[in-house]
Automatic annotation (TrEMBL), chains A, B:
Keywords: DNA-binding, Transcription, Transcription regulation. The keyword DNA-binding applies. SUPFAM superfamilies: lambda repressor-like DNA-binding domains (SSF47413), Periplasmic binding protein-like I (SSF53822). This is LacI family transcriptional regulator.
Amino acid sequence: MAATLKDVAARAGVSVATASRAFQRPDMVGARSLERVRRAADEVGYIPNSAARALISGRRGVYGVVVPDLENPFFPAVLKGAQARAHHHGVQLLLADAEESPEGERSLVRTLAGQVDGVVLCSSRMDEEALLEAASLTRITLVNRVRPGMTGVFADPVPGIPAAVRHLHRMGHRRLGYVGGPATSRSDSARRTALEEVCREVGIDLLDVGHFEPGVEGGRRGAEELLLTDATAVVVYNDLMALALIDRLKGFGVSVPEDLSVVGWDDIPFASLLTPGLSTVQVPRYDMGALAVDLLVAAGEPEREDEGGEGRAIGLPTQFVPRASTARLAREV
Amino acid sequence: MAATLKDVAARAGVSVATASRAFQRPDMVGARSLERVRRAADEVGYIPNSAARALISGRRGVYGVVVPDLENPFFPAVLKGAQARAHHHGVQLLLADAEESPEGERSLVRTLAGQVDGVVLCSSRMDEEALLEAASLTRITLVNRVRPGMTGVFADPVPGIPAAVRHLHRMGHRRLGYVGGPATSRSDSARRTALEEVCREVGIDLLDVGHFEPGVEGGRRGAEELLLTDATAVVVYNDLMALALIDRLKGFGVSVPEDLSVVGWDDIPFASLLTPGLSTVQVPRYDMGALAVDLLVAAGEPEREDEGGEGRAIGLPTQFVPRASTARLAREV
DNA sequence: CGCACGAATGTATACGATTGCAGACCAATG
DNA sequence: CATTGGTCTGCAATCGTATACATTCGTGCG
């Protein structure tokens, strides 16, 4: 159906070899032939067959991206960043949603492995063994997870968390709650560590509210637990939970920021839309996606394999964005 | 690097043809050989090369999905639906973000055309000509847009819009504003038509507030324009705008739903999270994505090309979801 | 016992593009 | 004029898989 290089060559009156070179190495082709091939290609609407190209070159020009849940507002920006760099590298992205299941991730990597040059694994919840299997099947770059020996990109709690805590301290807060994420999450413990350190430094009591599921329900439950403490401010594992928490607090007649200050994590698009605007630690999602693709593509080009991140995890700095959900106490709860 | 069918065949002591058949037509292969091939494949970790397969079969097993903006909360659910059906059909999805630009869509379709068996175009803003070009390059299914002769899936304002209007009428509202989307948008005019019809029927004054950009800024401006009318309720082009509108109204001291009732469109995930929960017309995004992929895949399988939607646009019913943003007036503005 | 037939397997070719190699052609040089 | 060198072009092999066709083998029946 579609025109092939053979058709173009025939129409231009040259061999397929010349036609091919007209695109790949125009300098190797005579001006006359070049012109004729180009015109012929235009006329028949020639589009190179990527499958044939991939077969001979060994590179498919396609990378997979696996996310646990597309509807989680964290990921679209990651994808956009990835997409932008993919486009820049002349490469395509195969999207896969694991539907929150580690087993799903695993099987997705298996099927993707045969069709892509590498996979970006976002916020993977696979266990170590599955991760190793994945790495043996195809090139892997982790986003939002670190594993020694594997290439990855993650958000460094510093300087965002320290800045947030100092901000709260300046606002007069001395008792800070932390509504955490899943106990198994590395990023949760990294954030905890950063919090502990800076709280000790500036002299704030850090109150552990516990571990919660990273969704709306977790945020609601976090609010309930939080009210059992005497914290005047709270840092929440992510924005989604923070918003749910604020909503739940409102149900208890506790309003933000008059009665309580709230800091989120991520800076999802909605964080600034709501009233009150959510103070949060901005995670460079776009850059994370972009860098992940860069690393993956670079790893596939041996000549400049020494570009950096090979097998290493790169931390991208976070930034505290103060908005209306943090303030000096208007009244004691 | 990776094991090929040849390796498997050698290890199993059979020819590549037999090895191939062991996977494609197991019934044509002796039990003994079948077993040996399977074991050999397992041992070397054989993964079929999709490029080679695509080359010979002519089908790539990959479909493209083009969205104008991934960060628009409308699309993730569409993608999830598409993804789910793609997985069901044993097919992959190539994701592309057009970054809000019709020209971007156009060039994406061009590049995708050579790598996929078809493209799902979501909420495309391409002009007619570009659309025709796209259709000439590859199989196209439209989502959220209709064009005679092209396969497509869209959200039918009925019964969602009539239900919403009747609900408002029952709440005592008699003057309803409509904050519309882009003037060029077909879905905007479809919604207008549905609104007019049901308003006439139940006896409500429909006040046209104008056309706005479908983002946060459009919603804010919509709020400002709305206050120039004496509407007591408003239907907004989409949830994102509705939320921004509510936020902006709050800035004017107008609160929802006490002073004004608001109905959105889409039912994006955040619509229910906020206080007040947004009353909205729920669009079956997931089903739209799913159906789009089904249609695309079906169109590629000639034997059952008569399955239905070929060249036709299919409307999926919407549903009104009442929440807290619609109520009887507590006080007159 | 021989023939025919079906099952199982192997051989060879095709898919479309790329590329090493060699040939054709021309100009410049000795 | 022969030789060299360079430019341009074509031939043919190749990537990994699928399949039409040919071949082999065993089996059942006449």
